[in-house]
Write a structure and sequence with these properties.
Helix content is 44%, strand content 2%. It has 15 helices and three strands. The longest helix is centred in the middle third of the chain and has 25 residues, at 226-250.
């Protein structure tokens, strides 16, 4: 990166186009040296120890796996071991799934719901089958005919995101399929050392997929595997952001930035609202390496201020900023944790209010970004009782001594409701 004293030059017309022949090797060499492989190990896919723990076990201590090759173990990072001095691969597979893999999975009846031809679990086609993620790949097993080139990977990603809003299956089923197949796409990108602008666009779209899934999985958190799905999705989201930031930096020209870079940097800041957020690089260290143009951008100022208000307990400023400045994707990240701020607001209003001046639930609805029908339920979960005034309007009387914060969390999921934040449904193809 150029020195900070040099003038800032904003990239125009979207992503910056330039020759990446020299930067490809530097990016993946830097990634490889960051993760030192263990001795006597001949696998070329390594664990990313910086962004992931070594394993994820269920409460019984047993490692679980399902039929769609989605393990409850921490997956290997999509980084190629450069210590073997392997030449860059150029994939030649013209299909979303190599023919040999598709035929083998047909024989084993190992086809996902979306890959079955006319619902037949033992029959698929080149237009339906998508290459599965393989956790360990030996250097001797890699063949160019099994690796998809960039154009095929882009088409595969379009195919997967066309399934995202499918209403024929539960969202957990849709997410499980896209989750695995996008990891396979990232694996093929890494094996070919593809780090150009088209790869950046693909990574940005995959980040958006995990952000929207972050919200939708919380909204459907009644499923038995909800906590595991949420954890794995958040882990992959953090990994994708870290890889995307490395790609931004690798392709940076002087102080120029990508058009979408400030927005995606703001996503990483907002993820720190998570109460158990321990993944990724600490913000204090990460901020030092960001260009000043990103730090001063509208998206980053919003994210940093929102995180500050959250940590200070300033619920008024927090809610106001969410209502007036948050984008749809930023809302998807923050929504699962906003109940903490709502509970703080209700507690302060209950303690500071006057008994003779109760709060109308309609006003609380606007403050808490809740539907009016949910305000009463939310207050009840906090131990507060609501009533009706002389004209029949629902109100909350302050100075109630029964307030408490649910230790095990709220039984009901309360989505953000605001006229300015409606239409969270996002078409992933329109980026």
């Amino acid at each position: 990166m150029a020195e900070r004293g040099q003038p800032f030059r904003q990239a125009r017309g979207g992503v910056t186009r330039r020759n990446l022949s020299s930067s490809r090797s530097s990016f993946f060499t830097k990634s490889a040296t960051r993760y030192q492989p263990p001795q006597n190990c001949n696998l070329n896919i390594r664990r990313n120890s910086q962004h992931m723990d070594s394993s994820f076990n269920n409460p019984n201590g047993n490692v679980k796996d399902n039929s769609d090759n989605r393990s409850w173990i921490k997956d290997a990072a999509d980084v190629i071991d450069e210590e073997n001095n392997l030449p860059s691969l150029v994939g030649t597979c013209p299909f979303m799934c190599p023919v040999e893999e598709r035929l083998q999975r047909e024989r084993l009846r190992d086809l996902a719901t979306f890959e079955r031809l006319d619902g037949n679990p033992g029959k698929s086609s080149s237009n339906l089958a998508v290459k599965k993620f393989c956790r360990t790949i030996s250097t001797r097993e890699i063949q160019v005919s099994d690796v998809r080139p960039l154009s095929v990977l882009e088409g595969t990603l379009n195919h997967l995101f066309n399934l995202f809003h499918s209403s024929d299956h539960p969202f957990e089923v849709v997410h499980d399929f896209i989750f695995d197949r996008t990891r396979s796409i990232r694996q093929d990108l890494s094996m070919q050392n593809i780090s150009n602008n088209r790869a950046i666009t693909m990574y940005e779209r995959m980040v958006k997929f995990h952000i929207i899934s972050h919200q939708k999985l919380h909204r459907s958190s009644s499923s038995p595997n909800a906590s595991s799905l949420l954890y794995l999705n958040l882990e992959q989201l953090t990994k994708l952001l870290m890889t995307l930031f490395n790609l931004y930096e690798t392709n940076r020209i002087s102080h120029s930035i990508y058009d979408n870079e400030p927005e995606f940097c703001s996503f990483y800041v907002l993820l720190q609202i998570h109460p158990d957020s321990k993944q990724g690089e600490p913000l204090s260290l990460w901020f030092r390496n960001l260009p000043s143009a990103i730090m001063k951008s509208k998206q980053m100022c919003f994210a940093r201020n929102l995180l500050r208000y959250f940590r200070l307990g300033n619920y008024k400023r927090f809610m106001y900023m969410m209502k007036s400045e948050a984008s749809c994707l930023q809302c998807c990240i923050v929504e699962p944790y906003i109940n903490e701020v709502r509970a703080l607001a209700v507690s302060c209003l209950n303690q500071a209010g006057y008994k003779l001046q109760p709060f109308p639930l309609a006003d609380l609805s606007n403050l808490l970004l809740l539907q009016e029908s949910d305000v009463e339920s939310f207050c009840n979960e906090c131990g507060l009782e609501t009533s009706s005034d002389e004209v029949g309007k629902r109100i909350l009387a302050p100075k109630q001594s029964s307030f408490f914060h649910p230790r095990k969390g709220f039984q009901k999921y309360y989505p953000i409701h605001s006229e300015g934040l409606q239409g969270v449904s996002i078409n992933l193809l329109d980026l």
